[in-house]
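Regression report. Comparing outputs from two consecutive submissions.

Submission 1:
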Amino acid sequence: MGMDAVLEQLVRNRAGAICEYCRFPQSASRFKHILDHVIARQHGGLTDAANLALCCGRCNLCKGPNIAGIDPTTRVLTRLYNPRTDDWHEHFRWSGALLEGVTPVGRTTVLVLNVNHRHRVAARQTLIRRGLLQG
């Protein structure tokens, strides 16, 4: 089933052309950002504005249908960040080009989405140097 064009444009506009998880800008990506089901369809998530987020290809690939993971600090099963209901700044902070999770939800999301893979950090460092991303 195809995504309704109006719904897709709403999600893209709402996100401001950045990945709602890692904040990577669409303008710096070779590939078009994807509309992600925050709660995967296999878990009962709907294809509607309340359950869709703009997501770079790398975050989408790592997230897959995951809705939780193990917090690397507490080793407790923890839900992932939800762009529709959570405040990004409450769960994450930048340390240069590294994204740090400051809550169990943030730490788990950074781990599951592999946000600080060396290639991703290098790409963010380049964007920071060019003034295209705030770290």
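Submission 2:
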Amino acid sequence: MIFIVVGARPNFMKMAPIVLEMKKRGIAHRLVHTGQHYDQSMSAVFLKDLGLPAPDIFLGAGSGTHAEQTARIMTAFEKACQARRPRLVVVGGDVNSSLACALAAAKLGIPVAHVEAGLRSFDRSMPEEVNRVLADHLSRLLFTTEPSGTKNLLKEGLPRSWIHFTGNSMIDSLRTHLKKALSLKPWERFGLAPNGYGLVTLHRPSNVDDRKTCLATGAELKKISREIPLIFPIHPRTRERMAEFRLDMGPKVICAPPLGYLEFLGLMARARAVLTDSGGIQEESTALGVPCVTIRRNTERPVTLTHGTNRLAPPGRISISRALGLAMKSKPPRRAPPLWDGRAARRIVQVIEKCAAL
């Protein structure tokens, strides 16, 4: 039996195609939900949109500090592993759930596979960077989404035989669900037309927890919204900081609660541009050919800069609108990054099936 771990929104899109491919091939597996994201808007609606079954195991970790949340997941996941003894644990991405489950499994002598391995921002102030580095070094199967991931892992001394360049399973989800997402016409909910709006997401502590940075970024979004209305589905912790800092971005920034996967994908696919600090949205906008401005000083996904539509803009004022103007003038990429073809999950599961050590 194989455990496939999900816990936060980014995990669901990465792991759904792998779950469905294993089901198709008759491979015994259990879907484990850590409960890192646990409310309807952050979890259940994503499972439904992606066609995933209810989790076989729910750990109920909930929120807390990084240490508290990681410790609760480790304790609960260790018990689940001891009870069922999976032959492999598959984790994805860089959230606390991925590190916690990889560490608990490794200490029990259970092999770990890491989907989306090798990505590096080289910025250890980001909790995600710590999570992804440690998860990689705990894993025996490393599935990379872009060539930089393979290069980074080799530089860090991990064996070449453990590394498999399989492409991006998140793009599998996008390709599978894009037609349905567009059929919903989610822009009509906001009284807007296709290509007549921008889409915003912000959630990273570096952008929203510092009062000065948050207010400066909000002022820049307000300025941009005078030229093009912005739809801003707001992460719960971002909403808390905005209320605390009394941030008012004006009527042209349309604030909304978190959206389901299909609604958000439909909006992104027909947005004039995307402004974000999310890693996954950099990839999805690249696959869709939609201009993207990443409000960060770095990215762990350089292929979105070299092959995609992404541009970096440091948090604050002026740089964001300048980067947005350049992004909107750029032509879409002529081709997608290598192996972003909708068949990554198939390649990942084929490797898992062939791995003699498992």
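Expected: both submissions complete independently.
Actual: both completed, but the second showed a warning that disappeared on reload.
Relevant detail on submission 2: The CA atoms of residues 124 and 130 lie 6 Å apart.
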